[in-house]
Design goal:
A three-stranded antiparallel beta sheet has the order 3-4-5, with no helix packed on it. The longest helix is centred in the middle third of the chain and has 21 residues. It is elongated, with a radius of gyration of 20 Å. It has two helices and five strands. The protein has one domain. By secondary structure, it is α+β, with helices and mostly antiparallel strands.
């Protein structure tokens, strides 16, 4: 979720996965995949920076729980034909 500011200075949290596009005309309009439009004070570049920062923090959290030994097992299994045992 990213924090944005409506034109009346109230803040709201927006699920960045639901953003379809952001445009400036001249106000910044965030259009969600549902068709809902939200007019915000932030410029489109600021909205983009907040999305990138949020996604970076999510990926950073994933790297803390990454287990390389389980990755090897997944790679070995996916390399086998039809997901079964490797041919000998």
């Amino acid at each position: 979720m990213i924090r944005l500011t409506r034109l009346n200075n109230t803040t709201l949290l927006v699920n960045s996965d639901l953003i379809k596009f952001v445009e400036e005309s001249p106000d910044t309009v965030v259009t969600l995949i549902t068709g809902e439009k939200i007019v915000v004070r932030e410029k489109s570049g600021d909205v983009l920076a907040r999305i990138v920062q949020f996604r970076h923090s999510v990926l950073e959290g994933l790297s803390l729980t990454w287990d390389a030994s389980s990755a090897h097992a997944l790679i070995s299994r996916s390399a086998a034909p039809f997901g079964g045992e490797r041919a000998r």
